[in-house]
Amino acid sequence: MEVALRPVEDADLDALFDQMRDPASVQMAAFTTKDPDDRxxxxxxxxxxxxxxxxxxxxxxxxxxxxxxxxxxxxxGDTEITYWIDRSAWGQGIAGRALALFLDTVEVRRPLYxxxxxxxxxxxxxxxxxxxxTVGTEISYAPARNxxxxxxxxxxx
Length: 157
Known about the structure:
With 157 residues, the chain is an alpha+beta fold.
């Protein structure tokens, strides 16, 4: 299995939209857009992300097939990492490999932060394996669950 990163292309947007609206994935991610089925909002957000100087966004491929995305963005001066892997590819080491590649090949300002719902054990495991350590938790509103939930905050120096 070869996991690779490349720039996100216009041709990727339909598949990324479908991945980011999968109900089980949305539930697990928790901190998603208000309406994952809103294609216009997705297109607007992706155009903004792809044009931003504070954002690095890459497509994640497995054996040449698009299986997700990974990126970093700046919020209030802190650089955060985010990724989304298609549910059909969960549990295969793809997120961990993509994160390692991203950290090795994309210039990102350190420290680097990540956040995940406290019950998203798979994502927390991926982040910790990459060297992120928990620096705190907070209660935040999770649109996908229409509730406030506990979120783990992690840091990589």
